[in-house]
Design brief:
alpha/beta; Quinone Oxidoreductase, Chain A, domain 1; Rossmann fold; binds NADPH dihydro-nicotinamide-adenine-dinucleotide phosphate; NADP
Length: about 325
């Protein structure tokens, strides 16, 4: 095993330019950890929040929460894995943007036969997000019509397919004609071009005035008003991301005036507190992948050393499906 490896670091918060390629020591495997020799690294929008300072981290910092590869070494007390296992993980400590990463064994999962490291790194964080959003945050029922923003994106494309699998009618939104076509190919029944069209007016038209019982909004600031106005009476606003910036403060009375609405701001960590919850979520994800109900689209692949380019593409709304870094 080499002593040094390539990793992405940043000294201060900022735009993609703050990302540097560094040579750092290969981490030692601590008790309860496994050392993963990475084959693929998942790029997630949350990485941009860590980098920009929207979600503050201690600086200087490493980056990245998701990766997959082979277990190279096993720390004291680990019984869950052995050297040679193909695993994936989707949680901290930050540092997935590297050739090797030491991760907490209880937060990693073994990839089943037929699921490659690339699919694991493209799917785990985004797919377990879709799992908790559709099955536990708001259990979507067959026959319901739901709204999914950024439907051609990483999480969005999985949400659309899984919601269709559950029997829902899906209204997606997308930032371009090309992305609208992709969202439709993933099964979206209707796609609203939200940069040009009035989302709430379209949702009301499609639902004969009723609105949707649940709206999954990862775009944040830019879509807040449209999402609020798209909900049916007693509907649930699931605000789970900030791609356009965080949702500004609002008066709770607005939920009353818009029809006794509910509002939640969930995060995946709270839906997989225990290893059992993690295993159940990942298990449900692997099931829909293996059955073919959900196809993981790897839209872009970059070298690890091109992390800055990958972040520029995410900010530029140029990506579709998942993005990977390959060490
Ligand atoms: P995506 O691949 O979905 O990329 C984000 C997409 O958001 C873009 O492609 C773009 O699609 C849309 N978008 C709208 N406005 C902007 C903007 N101003 N700048 C950039 N993009 C914009 O990313 P991920 O799949 O990694 O994540 C999707 C969302 O889910 C993120 O907000 C992320 O934070 C959130 N998330 C939340 C989790 C949680 O536990 N709460 C867990 C995982 C992800 P278009 O061009 O079609 O508008």
């Amino acid at each position: 095993m080499p002593e040094l490896m390539k990793a992405i670091i940043f000294q201060q918060a900022g735009g993609p330019d703050v990302l540097e390629i560094a040579e750092v020591p290969v981490p030692a495997v601590g008790p309860g950890q496994v050392l993963v020799k990475q084959q693929a690294i998942g790029v997630n929008f949350i990485d941009t929040y860590h980098r920009s300072g929207l979600y503050p981290v201690k600086l200087p910092s490493r980056l990245g929460m998701e990766g997959a590869g082979v277990v190279e070494a096993v720390g004291d007390g680990v019984t869950r894995f052995k050297a040679g296992d193909l695993v994936a993980y989707a949680s901290g400590p930050l540092g997935a943007y590297a050739e090797y990463h030491a991760v907490v064994a209880d937060r990693a999962v073994k990839l089943p036969d037929g699921v490659s490291a690339e699919i694991g790194a493209a799917a785990l964080l985004k797919g377990m997000t879709a799992e908790f959003l559709l099955r536990r945050c708001y259990p979507v029922k067959a026959g319901e019509t739901i709204l999914v923003h950024a439907a051609a994106g990483g999480v969005g494309s999985i949400l659309v397919q899984w919601a269709k699998h559950l029997g829902a009618t899906v209204i997606g939104t997308a930032g371009s004609e090309d992305k609208a076509r992709r969202a439709k190919a993933h099964g979206a029944d209707h796609v609203i071009l939200y940069r040009d069209q009035d989302v709430a007016a379209e949702v009301r038209r499609i639902t004969d005035g009723a609105g949707v019982p649940v709206a999954y909004d990862s775009v944040g600031a830019a879509t807040f008003e449209g999402t609020l106005a798209s909900l049916a009476r007693r509907g649930l606003f699931v605000s789970f991301g900030n791609a356009s910036g965080p949702v500004p403060a609002f008066e709770p009375a607005r939920l009353q005036r818009a029809g006794s609405l509910f509002f939640t701001r969930p995060t995946m960590g709270d839906y997989q507190v225990t290893t059992q919850e993690l295993d159940e979520s990942a298990g449900a994800l692997f099931e829909v992948i293996k059955s073919g109900a959900v196809k993981i689209e790897i839209g872009q692949t970059f070298r690890l050393t091109q992390a800055k380019t990958a972040h520029e593409a995410l900010h530029g709304r140029e990506t579709v499906g998942a993005s990977l870094l390959i060490p």
